[in-house]
Amino acid sequence: MHPDFDQTSPDRLGGYADVIAEMDHRVGQLVDCVEEAGIADNTLIVFSSDNAAGVIPAVLGGSNGPWRGSFMTPPTEGSMRVPGMVRWPGTVPAGVVSEEPFSAHDWYETFAALAGASDKVPDDRPLDGIDASQFLLGDSEQTGRQFVVFFGPDGSLMSVKWHSIKIWLRYCEGIDKPIVRPQFPMVFDLASDPGEHYNLFSDRMDMGWMIAIAMRAVGDYEKSIAQYPNIKPGEDFTGYS
Fold it and tell me: Can you tell me whether residue 56 is helix, strand or coil?
């Protein structure tokens, strides 16, 4: 639990601690079952999340550590950054901590590769994910992902991240606040400013080259959408011509 959480009330702290303890207990039970079944060396266990902490006091609070914002403030890191832990004894190296970029979209192709089923991945449509299996196996120091493109609740682009450089195209300060488009994209260096407090372009005009690199990902996305329009919910898909 993050130490900043002690700023909340004792009642909420106790409730949140109970939730963490329960989750830890249940995850431990699953790991124990795999061990007792004798299949640990042939079982990949992944612990992750779909979004960062909501940080809503009425529902037991939460903390995103040094990262700014919460689920309700896209595109801050506190809105998108989630835990990601992998366990596969004898196959995935233990004790490795990495800052390499990885997206939830990447699990699909990565799992397929680890299962020896890459030939089953559809090739009649573009996929947002990449195969990071060699990274998980310890055979590569990089995931292979260069950019993370983040979308808002309205389905439109919010930000682009290139390694530790984050470009805000739009932002929102809270669930009751509008999505704002700044006059010019905002630039943050997460390596030195994980809280995204200092817009580099406000003080360093020579940071513009970072925007140019990040916008390559936006250009690639827009070209892909033009060539391969998104499939509408419920639409019968027979492949692209």
Answer: strand
